[in-house]
TrEMBL record:
Organism: Photobacterium proteolyticum
Protein name: DUF3081 domain-containing protein
Pfam family, one: DUF3081
Length: 103
């Protein structure tokens, strides 16, 4: 993916969700984004209904989309598949930046 985001901003959004969000069965939710972490704190996750973002130790991150495998998507070319996933990721990044500004 062509995404380059500042990990500090991602972690800032994570902290805002964690401190200002509402606890649910699946994590803490704020503005349509849910955050979770593993018990040792070396891994956090931000997600919505289409995209999941893993933020790992050493400031590495990885995006996952609802449809990760182009072979499972019917009636889309590989280019359409990648463009669709990129659009979902860009919309998710925009949602995170809006949360960062709002809270």
């Amino acid at each position: 993916m062509k995404n380059s985001v500042d990990v500090r901003t991602l972690l800032s959004v994570y902290e805002k969700i964690k401190t200002q969000g509402t606890a649910t069965d699946t994590g803490i939710q704020l503005g349509g984004v849910t955050c979770t972490e593993n018990p040792d704190g070396y891994y956090v996750n931000l997600s919505d209904s289409n995209v999941s973002l893993d933020i790992n130790f050493h400031n590495t991150y990885h995006f996952h989309t609802a449809n990760e495998d182009p072979d499972t998507v019917i009636n889309q070319t590989t280019t359409e598949f990648h463009n669709n996933n990129e659009a979902q990721i860009q919309a998710f990044i925009h949602k995170l930046m809006e949360l960062d500004k709002r809270y």
